[in-house]
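Recap slide: DUF374 domain-containing protein, sequence and predicted structure.
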Amino acid sequence: MSLVKRITRSRPVQEAMGFLVASYLRLVQRTNRFVMEPADAYDRIGPMMPVIAAMWHGQHFMIHFAKRPQDRAASLVSRSGDGEFNAIALRHLGIRAIRGSGARGRDIRKKGGVSAMRAMLRALADGEMVVMTADIPKISRVCGEGIVTLAQLSGRPIVPVAVVTSRRIDFDSWDRASLGLPFGRGAMVLGEPIRVPRDADAEALEEARQAVERELDAVHARAYALVGSEDPGARTRKRAPAALAGGSGA
């Protein structure tokens, strides 16, 4: 590991960076004029809490803007070095981190997917909303099975969410990540809740997975339209492998 990487991954540096990122995101939230769609989203979703808030990779920076102050929330965050930094930032924003991520094949245990699933089920049972990306790393905009499995086992609905701003930085990454800038306009769009029956068979799970995918595409397209933009991640979709396993942490 290089000297720079060792420094940036040291605990004091990550704590400082996490605090600065959280402070910056609060600035973005305060200085953008946000519109919510539907306007009665909180009235509709509130009685369903706790829910599973679904997002696409690359949209995780600002997803917490859509959380009401009174809602307790936990977010799935990967075990990587970058994940540690994200977990610290989330802590400063009042969101608990659950460490682990989705994976394919034998990697799922190494990445903590099994223990993370158990932790998310406990969180939902305890009344915490769970926030997680629906797609898995390197396969952008293709919903994995993890989020629908969580909905099936927990009995809680999946709510697709998009939060975007008119002024932002769009990164040239595999997931076309976006970071909002201050002093613009913003949109928060919540999609139709998706429920997965506990007795869902393989066909029903696949239908639910496709429904999450469609709704996430729809809320992102609508959110970007509300701020006068096109979704920069709309063209990143890749063909899913034969077997998908789990949504991933940020």
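The chain is about 40% helix and 15% strand.
The chain has one domain: 3-226.
(End of recap.)
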